[in-house]
Amino acid sequence: MLITAPSFNIDSNGHKTPIDNGFFYAERFPTQFAKANKYFKLRVDKGFCILYHRRAAKADSKSAQLINFCTIHAKKENIMNHELLNLIEINSELSAVQRFSQSKLATPESVLEHSGSVCLFAYFIGNQLIQEGHSIDMGQLLSKAIVHDIDECLTGDIARPIKYSSEEIRSMLNEIETNAVADIDDQTYMNGVLNKDWLTAKVGVEGSIVALCDVLTVVYKCYDEIIVRGNLSMEKYVVGIGGLFVSKVRAIQSELDKPSPFLKKLSGDGKLIVDNIIEKITTSKGSNFL
Q1: Same domain, 262 and 125
Q2: Structural domain range at position 219
Q3: What is the pTM of this model?
Q4: Is residue 158 part of a domain?
Q5: Beta-strand pair 2-5/22-25
Q6: Tell me, what CATH number does 278's domain have?
Q7: What is the chain's mean pLDDT, rounded?
Q8: Do 128 and 243 have their domain in common?
Q9: pLDDT tens digits, one per residue of 25-67
Q10: In 10 A of CB 186, how many CB atoms?
């Protein structure tokens, strides 16, 4: 596909100076070209696609001096159409990324399914705490829950031993994840809302609930695979999960203004379920499991 684009330099006052007409070759729609090329980003302004050079924007982010804009003429309805296609593609990519990649599962779980489980658990836990009189913002809670792993539609599910093997690797991956979510925010025209929800997904009391639900989905998956289906390949994920679950419950409790009977019971129930999983493994494999 040949895309013709009149180009401009724009100074710090916003004045445009025409340059020679530019040409971009892309096999798919402009947003796909922008997504595939890390040096370009696409925005929409008054019915036009604006494709600009990412490196120039980063180099002069404070002064916005001499950033080269390439305006691609397109009908607004086509742009809005592609916004929907971007959402469909993100949904598809999240459904394609499989979790627990180091184990062979009886029923594979995608990141999309995991995100749905986190939302469901968060919905019930948040409402239980509200019924006890605690202040929980359900809109914020569910927004954080649904996007907490959205970076994985571009990065994939990185195995935990690799992800946290060193501070250097964790820092490098964090930069990749941050850039990935910024790109998704741009592609979906969320104007920073998605980016903010992702960055604060595990911050505050709502974020602590998301962190608990994230662990709770692992407990659920271990129970489903090991207890229900007799698949012991998940045993590596059971080690330490009980203690982690309890610590996440305590983190929520520490942010509440009064004790929660519901959280106390939840902590005990979670430990009991984990103990049942461990008993199943030790019965099958012997007492040397842990």
Answers
A1: yes
A2: 99-285
A3: 0.72
A4: yes
A5: antiparallel
A6: 1.10.3210.10
A7: 78
A8: yes
A9: 333 334 444 444 444 444 444 334 444 444 344 444 433 333 3
A10: 21
